[in-house]
Amino acid sequence: MSSSPTTPSSATAATPPAAAASPASPASPAGAPGSAPVAVTGAEGFIGSHLVETLVTAGHRVRAMVQYNSFSSFGWLETLPADVLDHVEVVLGDVRDPGSVNGLVAGVDAVYHLAALIAIPYSYRAPHSYVETNITGTLNLLEAVRHQEIPRLVHTSTSETYGTAQTVPITEDHPINTQSPYAASKAGGDRLADSYHASFATPVVTLRPFNTFGPRQSMRAVIPTVIGQVAAGQRTITLGDLRPTRDFSYVKDTAAAFLAVGTAPAEQVVGHTFNAGTGGEISVGELVRLIGKLMDTTIEVHEDAQRIRPADSEVMRLVCDASRLRAATGWAPAHTLEDGLGHTIDFFRDPANLARYKTDLYNV
After folding, report:
1. Where is region (Disordered) located (predicted)?
2. Rounded to 5°, angle at Cα 212 from 209 and 216
C-alpha cells in the first residue's frame, strides 16, 4: 500500500537474516517492545516508512523488508533520520517468494504486512500481477506466520473493498463490493486472513484504512497530485472526476492505528477487522479548493479522461466508522484534515522533496 521515490514497494519481502532473534515472552502482548524485532513488509513505501518510524519511536527494533532491486534502493527508508535507522535492519526480497518471507519472519514478535500493488488504474492493465502480490503474497505471509508460530500478523486491507457506500458511515459489517481488480485482490487477501484465523487459529488482525495521505505519498493519489503540481508552479492542474467523496486520514494517524492493533492484547483484536478513518468526508472538488486556500492560490482544474475510472468501477463515496477500533484500542485521529494538508504542503514545498517527483506526468 505504498510507493517509493525510486522503486515500487509493491511486492516486498526479505532474505533470511543473519541471526534470528528469540520470540517474545508469552506474558507480553504480541508486538510489545522487547528483545525480538518486529517485521514490516512494504517498508520502503509511503505508509510503510512512516510505520517504521512510529515503531522505532515506540521502542521497537524493526526488520524492514524492501522489494529486491538491482540498485540497492531502500526507497523512502533512505530519508529517515540516522537515529531511526540505527534500529532498523533492511532486508531485500519479495512477498511472492515463500523462502524470503520465511526468512523475514524468523524470530520476530509481530509482522505488519503492508506490501501490495495499490494503484487502481494500473490494476486494469495488469490484474494478474495484483493477484500474485496481494493474494499469493498474503498467503505466503500467513503460511510463514502459521508455521513459525509468530504471535501476531497485522494484515492491511483497504476501504476500496467496500465499494461505493451503501450505508453511511461505513462499519466493518458493510457488504464487500469490489469495483476494481485492485479491490478484488485486496478482498481476496482479506478472506485468506479470515480463513487462516478460523482454520488454524493464526493470530491475524486486519486493519482497513480509509484514504491515507501525507508526506512521501506517490503522485498516483489525488492530494500529492494537486499539491505537487501547485508547488511546481502550475495553476491549471489535471485531475479526473471531482465528484467522489473520501474520508482522508493523515499518515501519522494511520501508522498509530497499525501500532494500536499490533500491540493490543490478543483477546481485544485478533480475529477481527478494524476500520481506520476520521468519520468525515470531502469531495475531490472541495478538496482542491481547500488546498488552494491553504496554498494561497487559485487552482483551475482540467479534466483528463484517462484519469477517470470506468463508470461502474468508480467508488463514489467512502466515509468511515472507526468506533470498533476506538473501543478495542483507544485509537483516535490526532490530526485534522487541515493539519495534515499543512504538513504535506510543507513537505512538497521543500525543493529536495519536490525533486523526487515527476509533476508533469500522469502517475498511474
Report:
1. 1-36
2. 135
